Amino acid sequence: MSMNRDNFRAAQPPSKVLHVRNLAPEATEADVAELCRPFGRVLRVKLTDKYQGFVEFDNIRNAIAMMTYFVGNPEAPRVCEKAVFLQYSTRQEIGGGVAISAAHGSGGGPPQLGAGPVLLASLDCSDASLGPGIDSLHTMFSSFGEALVQFSDPRMAAEARAGLDGTRVPAYMAPSHPNPITMRVGHSMLPEVAIQRESEWARDFAEINALRAAEAATAAEEAAAAAQVPAAAAPSDGEGCCVLLAMIDDVQYTPSLDAMKQVFSVYGALAKMQLLYRAGAWQALVQYAEPAAAAAARSYLNGHAMYPGGANKLALEFSMQRELHVPQDDEWGWDWTRQAEAAAAEAAAAEAAAAAAQLAAATPAGEGAAGGGGAAGTAAATAAALESPAPSEHVTGDDFVAAHEEVMRDNEHLQRENQLLAAFLDKAQQRQQQQQQQQQQQQQQQQQDQLRTAAAADEHSKRRKAAARRRPEEEAFQLLSEEEKGELVAMETEVLETEISGERAMGEKDIDDIRTLMEEVEMRIGEIKKATYEFKRDIILAGDDAHGGNLSADRVVRYWEEAIRAKEVMLEKVALKNSTYKAAIAKLEAQLAHKEEMGEVLHLVDFEQLKIENQQHMEMIDAKNKELLQLKLATGKTVQALNAGKAELARLESDQAALSGEIASKRQELAAFERGLMQTQAQAADVERTFMLLEAEHRNTDQPFTMDYILMKHKVAELEKRTADWRRKVE
C-alpha cells in the first residue's frame, strides 16, 4: 500500500507541518513522534479528536524527506500497527499541541564524535551502467548541503546520513535499472575525497562553484560597466534591466514565493517578485536591486529545473518593464523595498505637514484654516493612497493588469493633487502678500478715518470677526470628516479580518471533522454492504421456496447464531492475544529486573567496547566496499567493451550481407552479358559467310545485268550495315 505521488504533490505545496490521518484511538503524541524520529527534529505534535494529528518539523527539508521516503515506499507508514495517511498541511506552524524535546525529535541525533564530512554511499544496483549518474547523486545529496558526498560541514554530513540512509533512489534517476536501488550511507574514514581527474565517476563541485562565482563576478563587472554607458548608446538586448520574466514549464509542484526566492536570491539581492497564473501557465516577474544580479541569474538559471527530474523548468528573458509594481505583500507578490518607501513617504508627509503648519501660522485666521485644511487633507490622502489595498485570495493575469491600470490612475490622481497643492501654496503666498498690502492700506485708511464715529468702527469690526468665525468652521468640518472616515474604515477592516480568520479556522476544523466522519461512514457502509451481500447469498437466494417464495426461519436463526458465534470467537482471540502480550511484557520486565539485580546490564565500558568493534567492522566494510566498487567499475568497463564489440560485429555482418547481395546481382548481369555476346558472335559469323558467298558469286559472274547489279548492291549495303551494327555490338 503506497501513496499516490502525483495526486498528493499537485494537491498541496510542501510545508514543514504534516497532516496525519487514520490514527488508532490509542495513539499518543509519543507514537507519532516515534514515526517521524528518523527524518529529523520534531518541534510539536498535536492530536485532534477525530483520529488525526499534525507534526511540525524544525525545517521543511525534514518534512520533504519523510514524504519522499513514504511516497516511494510500497509499505504505508504505521502508528500502533495501523496504516496512516500523510500529506502536507496548509498551515506553516502548529498552535498549541505537545512540544517534543530534542532527544525525541532528532532521529539521527547530534553528529557523532570524529564523524567527518565524507560519506560513503553504497547502492545495491546490479549494473553500474544502469544506476544513477553523478548528477543524480548530486541532486539527492545537495538538499542537505553545498557538496556531493564530501560536505563542507560535518553537521551537514550527519543530516544527510540520517535523511538518506536506507532510502530508495527515485525511479526517474535510474530508469533503466530493473529493480529499486537502496542506499546505505555511512561515515568514511577518509578525511577528504581527492579527485585526480573529473569523469562520469568523479567530479569536484568545489572547483565548479568557484568557477561559477568567478564568472558571476565577471558578469557583474561587465553589467556594471554597461550600466555606465549612456542610454542612447545602450543596446536593446536587456542590458541595464533589473526585471526578469520567468516562464515555468513542466509544473509538477505548485510554485511559491519561498521556493522562487530560494532559487533567485543566490545571485543577488531581490527587490520585488510577482507570481502570475494565466491560461493554465505559470509565470513570474523578478526584479533585482542591480542589473548585474539580473544578468547573472538569467545566465545561470535559464533552462534550469527547480526540482529533480526536470520539474518546474525555468525559461528566463528580460522583461519589457523597467520597474515592477506589487500591489500588496501576499502569496502572489512581495515588495522588499516597501518599508523604505513607507519611511520616505512618512518623512515627506511630515515635511508637508510642517510646511502647512508654518503657512497656517503666517496666514490670517480664515484663510490660514483653509490652507491648513487643504494641506493636511492632501497629506492624509497621500498617506491613504500609499497604503496597500486589501489582499486578494487569487490574482490572475487579467486581474493583475486591471490592478496595474488602477494603480496608474491613482498615481495620476495623486500627481494632480500635488499640482493642486503647489498651486494652492502659491496662491496662499500671493494672498498673504495682498493681505499684508491691504492691512497697510487699512492702517493708513484707519489713520485717515480716526475722526469717524466709534459706533461705525465697532460695527465694522464686529462684521469682520463674525465672517472670520464662520469661515474656519465651514472648512474645519471637511478635514475632520476625512480623518474620521479613514479611522472608521481601518476599524471596520480590522474587525472584518478578525472575523474572516476566525471563520476560516472554524471552517477548516469543520472540514477535517466532516472528512473523518465521511471516512468512518464509508467504512461502515462497506461493512454493511458486505454483510447484506452475504445474507442475500446465503439466506435469501439459497432459501427461496420454489412455490411460495417463503424463507426458512430455521435457516435465518442459524445464520445469525453463526454470526454471533463468529464475533464471540473473534473477541476471544483478541482477548487471548492481549493476555499473551501482557504475559510477554511481564516476562520481559522480570528478565530486565533479574539482569539489573545480577549486574548483567550493559555499562559504559561495554558500550565503548561495542563502539570499537563497530568501528573495526565499519573499516572492514569500507575496504570491502572499495573492492566491490573496483570490481563494479571493471565489470562496467568490460560490459561497455563487450557492447562496443557486439555493435561492431553487427555492423560488419550487415555490411557482409549487403556485399553478398551486390556480388550475386553482378554475377547475374555478367552471365546475361556473356549469353548476349555469344549470340552476337554467331550472327556475325553467319553474316560473314553470306557475304563471302555473295562476293564469290560476284567474282564468278562475267557480266551481270544492271538490275541484278543494283539489287545486289542494295543487298550488299544492307549486309554491310548489319555487319557494322553487329561489330559495334560485339565491341
TrEMBL record:
Coiled coil: 571-697
PROSITE patterns: RRM
Any single GO BP term: cilium assembly
Domain RRM: 16-91
Predominant cellular place of this UniProt entry's protein: other
Compositionally skewed regions (Low complexity) per UniProt: 432-450
Cellular component annotations (GO), alphabetically ordered: axoneme; ciliary basal body
InterPro entries per UniProt: CC_CF, CCDC113/CCDC96_CC, Nucleotide-bd_a/b_plait_sf, RBD_domain_sf, RRM_dom
Keywords: Cell projection, Cilium biogenesis/degradation, Coiled coil, RNA-binding
Pfam families linked to this entry: CCDC113_CCDC96_CC, RRM_1, RRM_5
Name of this protein: Cilia- and flagella-associated protein 263
Similarity field: Belongs to the CFAP263 family.
Entry's Gene Ontology molecular function annotations: RNA binding
Region: Disordered, residue numbers: 432-482
Record localization: Cell projection, Cilium
